[in-house]
Amino acid sequence: MKAIKVTAAIIIKNEKVFIAQRSKNDELSGKWEFPGGKIESNETAQECLERELFEEFGIRTKILDYLGESIFDYGNKLIHLLGYFTEHLSGDYILQVHQNCKWIDVNEFDDIDWAPADIELVKQLKKKLTDQ
Ligand SMILES: Nc1nc2c([nH]c(=O)n2[C@@H]2O[C@H](COP(=O)(O)OP(=O)(O)OP(=O)(O)O)[C@@H](O)[C@H]2O)c(=O)[nH]1
């Protein structure tokens, strides 16, 4: 099975991380994720993330450092999630496709009902944020 490459943004403000909840009609409905989406054939991971964040929330962003990856087999598909630290440049967050969003502290990571592919990425992020 060929892995589907998906970008995921880690946006941090006042030491809190932005996460979004997938919509009712979505696959993985109700699960929380780092916003992003599938990389299209003509774009880089960075271009993809900037496009997705504008489409999904109406915000302009700048992609910073690469955090890491998670490869997860959902059975019907293999997801290759790529996490990038991302800076919010402008625009208010307006939900276009998600049912909810929130800013969470690293202490709350373990209480979130994450999309399964995110769990490995969350582990890496937690390590990075608590080791500093
Ligand atoms: N954006 C995003 N997708 C994730 C995460 N974790 C995870 O398993 N996924 C999965 O990765 C795939 C990407 O989904 P998406 O729906 O956000 O991407 P997209 O906007 O390009 O999709 P579409 O073109 O089907 O609407 C989905 O199968 C989704 O369930 C995550 O943290 N962020």
TrEMBL record:
Organism: Labilibaculum antarcticum
Family according to the record: Belongs to the Nudix hydrolase family.
One of the record's GO molecular function terms: 8-oxo-GDP phosphatase activity
Requisite cofactors: Mg(2+)
Residues of the Nudix hydrolase domain: 2-127
Family annotation (Pfam families): NUDIX
Catalysis performed (reactions): 8-oxo-GTP + H2O = 8-oxo-GMP + diphosphate + H(+); 8-oxo-dGTP + H2O = 8-oxo-dGMP + diphosphate + H(+)
BP terms from Gene Ontology: DNA repair; DNA replication
UniProt EC number: 3.6.1.55
Coiled-coil annotated residue ranges, if any: none
InterPro entries for this protein: MutT-like, Nudix_hydrolase, NUDIX_hydrolase-like_dom_sf, NUDIX_hydrolase_CS, NUDIX_hydrolase_dom
Alphabetized UniProt keyword annotations: DNA damage, DNA repair, DNA replication, Hydrolase, Magnesium, Metal-binding, Mutator protein
Protein known as: 8-oxo-dGTP diphosphatase
Keyword Hydrolase assigned: yes
